[in-house]
TrEMBL record:
All copies of domain Major facilitator superfamily (MFS) profile, residue ranges: 7-378
GO terms under cellular component: plasma membrane
Compartments reported by the entry: Cell membrane
Topology in the lipid bilayer: Multi-pass membrane protein
Transmembrane segments: 36-60, 72-90, 128-150, 156-179, 199-222, 234-254, 266-284, 290-311, 323-343, 355-374
InterPro entries the UniProt entry points to: MFS (IPR011701), MFS_dom (IPR020846), MFS_Efflux_Transporters (IPR050189), MFS_trans_sf (IPR036259)
Keyword check for Ligase: no
UniProt keyword annotations, A-Z: Cell membrane, Membrane, Transmembrane, Transmembrane helix
GO molecular function terms attached to this record: transmembrane transporter activity
Official protein name in the record: Putative MFS family arabinose efflux permease
Keyword Membrane: yes
Length: 387
């Protein structure tokens, strides 16, 4: 296939398998607690383990992709994800659940970095913002599908069937990626592996922290939302369907945020939307107006995604992009590993999953001074470049 929008469709579907697999634990968390005799803190650790390999693998993932090639690297990543799901589907030992989760996460890291590179190869210099907005939307779509499908599967057939379903989807991804073709060689720029300058590196670090903290907040909704609602008497299936509202609406708000940011003031948009999201998260833990909050969260929560994801690109030249994005993703994965684990412990101490939503509100607020810091660093760097 040589049509770039067809290629993007393939990459979109393959990437959503990561979100679907990530959500497989949170979607049936109450079932896992009952089956394995673990608490909510253990569930938080299991959720966060998916991102743990990213701390080690994010930086070298680009080198692995260059050594093996696009298609072999994605197939390897999907095989790891499939194997991890199969381990989780077939074991009744909690330690093996954690091992399977780590294997899945390792595959997810490789796949995330490689697919991002492949999408950029096809759209660099032409409609890249539109393409990346569509590409990023594969995450909420994958999570939304999992929230609709997996609780019902788990309720009917058990947690093992949920992980088996995730493994089947990643196996389908292997078949689908076989249709991928690289762009014509003339359009693919092989960037050298150079480190960004000091200020650019500092800006990328801050950008990675912003993206990681914001995603912690968003993850609280779909990771601990089902548990919070079941605490209030909702069924597992109903809770999953309700939480999925956020993800489906973010399919609209993510590209809308990118569109508005390209034609307005991205900094103002990001700050305003973040304040609203923080307020909604705090409200969620204290109100029964669940559907209203979830609808507003979906409509507003996706708006900052595009502007935040574009921060690193503002300071990274083509020759520094590989290592710079590795740093960016390393910080993102570190945040996404620690966030759910900390939220699980807080929920255990408080005796309710509502504590996770309060943590999410705080992490969103922490993004605001970091946004100011990022703009300050960029301003100083640009001033030095002119002098």
């Amino acid at each position: 296939m040589r049509n770039r929008w067809g290629i993007l469709a393939i990459l979109f579907v393959v990437r959503l398998t990561i979100a679907f697999q990530f959500q497989s634990v949170a979607a049936v968390a109450p079932l896992l607690q009952g089956s394995f005799g673990v608490g909510i803190a253990d569930i938080g650790i299991l959720i966060g383990l998916y991102f743990t390999p990213g701390i080690v693998l994010a930086l070298p993932s680009g080198a692995i992709g260059r050594a093996l090639g696009d298609k072999p690297t994605t197939i390897l990543a999907l095989l790891l994800m499939t194997a991890g799901s199969l381990v989780m589907a077939t074991t009744d030992i909690w330690g093996w659940q954690m091992a399977g989760r780590l294997a899945s996460g390792a595959g997810g890291v490789l796949l995330t970095v490689q697919l991002t590179k492949m999408a950029t190869d096809w759209f660099a210099g032409r409609e890249i913002a539109t393409a990346m907005a569509i590409f990023v939307n594969s995450w909420p779509v994958g999570v939304g599908i999992s929230l609709l499908v997996l609780p019902s599967i788990g309720t009917a057939y058990g947690a093992g069937a949920v992980f088996l379903a995730a493994g089947v989807l990643t196996a389908i991804g292997i078949a689908l990626i076989m249709f991928y073709q690289p762009p014509p060689a003339v359009t693919v720029g092989a960037a050298a592996s150079g480190w960004p300058d000091a200020l650019a590196l500092l800006a990328v670090i801050v950008a990675g922290m912003i993206w990681g903290l914001y995603n912690i907040a968003f993850a609280m909704i779909f990771s601990f939302g089902p548990t919070l609602l079941t605490e209030r008497g909702w069924s597992i299936a109903a809770a999953g369907s309700a939480i999925s509202v956020v993800m489906w609406l973010s399919v609209i708000s993510v590209p809308a945020g990118g569109y508005l940011a390209d034609r307005g003031k991205p900094f103002v948009l990001t700050i305003a939307a973040s304040l609203v999201v923080a307020a909604l998260l705090a409200w969620m833990s204290r109100s029964d107006a669940v559907i209203t909050i979830l609808i507003l969260g979906g409509l507003v929560g996706g708006l900052p995604a595009g502007p935040m994801m574009s921060l690193a690109a503002r300071v990274l030249a083509p020759e520094t992009r590989a290592l710079g994005m590795g740093v960016f993703y390393t910080l993102f994965y570190a945040a996404m590993m620690l966030g759910p684990a900390l939220a699980g412990r807080l929920a255990k101490s408080a005796g309710t999953a509502a504590a996770a939503f309060d943590l999410g509100a705080l992490t969103v607020l922490a993004c605001l001074p970091l946004m100011l810091l990022f703009e300050r660093i960029v301003s100083v760097r640009e001033r030095r470049a002119r002098s």
